[in-house]
Amino acid sequence: xxxxxxxxxxxxxxxxxxxxxxxxxxxxxxxxxxxxxxxxxxxxxxxxxxxxxxxxxxxxxxxxxxxxxxxxxxxxxxxxxxxxxxxxxxxxxxxxxxxxxxxxxxxxxxxxxxxxxxxxxxxxxxxxxxxxxxxxxxxxxxxxxxxxxxxxxxxxxxxxxxxxxxxxxxxxxxxxxxxxxxxxxxxxxxxxxxxxxxxxxxxxxxxxxxxxxxxxxxxxxxxxxxxxxxxxxxxxxxxxxxxxxxxxxxxxxxxxxxxxxxxxxxxxxxxxxxxxxxxxxxxxxxxxxxxxxxxxxxxxxxxxxxxxxxxxxxxxxxxxxxxxxxxxxxxxxxxxxxxxxxxxxxxxxx
Amino acid sequence: xxxxxxxxxxxxxxxxxxxxxxxxxxxxxxxxxxxxxxxxxxxxxxxxxxxxxxxxxxxxxxxxxxxxxxxxxxxxxxxxxxxxxxxxxxxxxxxxxxxxxxxxxxxxxxxxxxxxxxxxxxxxxxxxxxxxxxxxxxxxxxxxxxxxxxxxxxxxxxxxxxxxxxxxxxxxxxxxxxxxxxxxxxxxxxxxxxxxxxxxxxxxxxxxxxxxxxxxxxxxxxxxxxxxxxxxxxxxxxxxxxxxxxxxxxxxxxxxxxxxxxxxxxxxxxxxxxxxxxxxxx
Lengths: 350, 282
Description:
Helix content of chain A is 71%, strand content 2%. By secondary structure, chain A is an all-alpha fold. In chain B, the strands form two sheets. In chain B, strands 6-7-8-3-9-10 form a six-stranded mixed sheet, sandwiched between helices. A four-stranded antiparallel sheet of chain B has the order 2-1-4-5, covered by helices on one side.
């Protein structure tokens, strides 16, 4: 590799390397480590769990991956932009509760509830961003505060309105069937039922990747995460970019919340706590640096896929599902070590 | 080199700046013309940063006049200064290390082709060409800019400013954090920028970096100019002496001498000799 070819590295920088091989280019991609991991996990569960390779179970794996993956899209972009959102998990529940409670209490068409929920959720995202920008506190602290506030409000408001910890079922209300088609239906792919969230997931990953790599906004996202001061100095609107990223997470939270509503018709107000870390794990396994400025939406998708494979694979292998978290922790550790090595390599001569 | 009938690109006359009751800058005259390098020298706290901030549009001056191409100006933001062709490259705020060279080059001024899409082919080609024009032959414009040396990174920032229409380039201590070789690289690009017809204002505390490339030298001390010379009017030794402040050095030698009285104080003796030498050359 480099070391073999190079003489003294700093003296003649333009002659350090011959043309780079495609393999080395692949090695440098942020999602490379995750891809290797995904192949390893796939082969592993194919061997130990007979049911794993059946089309139906694979569809289940994809469904589990998509529910985490959709959130991981927003969370990974935010992380590339250098920030965390710990309120992402409970925000999904908040979005779902707003849609159901508002529609049910005011007897509105569910689509109205869906729209109101979108507005409310985006406002929460914008609030996260504004609080972060205005206070200058780490996003970790700001969103930890909103996490607790939302978690408390979810329970408190639901109990006050319904007298119960869950929202009333909206299954028989106007708009349920049509909205269900959009957010929670099954699609027949060659005789196998695949959840529609899988396709939404792939679409969101595609859009996010396009934004990151092909648009000016993407350039700004990398810049505000990599070196906010430098970005500001060359005229990048740092505050606007970061607030936009928090709102991106909120949008994904809204979508995931709508899936909950139309998949189950009733929403448990205590749900979502702890999921925020799962999304972050997906992004980190996928090659996003915790410090920002580096990563990819495709990587986060691969991370979510690994997540889904392990989550369901353990069941198909008939192991005690308690071990899921152990695996998760181990993968997180391996992924961060790989990322660390990547970053050192990238900044080697800096 | 300059066209005599043209007013200098940047001209400060009697410029002063107060921060509350602190006098940060007083009576500063400075000219920077196209195709010339004006060096601003001074120790820490001499007022160099205040001066740059005024030129760059970050702060407004309180006294005197600031003219761009003969027209008095009072900038309210760096954007104003940029619009008049005055670009500032800060030492530590130059680039985003993890991003590819071409993304850094166009950061904040991305070339677009509608729907927010960037014209990536154009940007990559242009970055490569502009860097080549500065004498840096990039192996790959996709390499993270962090893999370039510190000197080269400064040069990307300079090339970027030149490309985006800068007529005057303000360089804030571009050689300060660099090794000898890398500082040499940056100095070469300063000369290149000058040869491309830019007015360069080069801030440094190192007379050995300033003298070889400079056409004019402004030396600041405690917010006041203690010398403003063209290259013909000053030698490298004089510049160094002005910069070091021969009198202050002598005073320090005395103090050291008093503190460590006796023949053992080698440091004091050396300082005294240095001060002597400086006084002679002044």
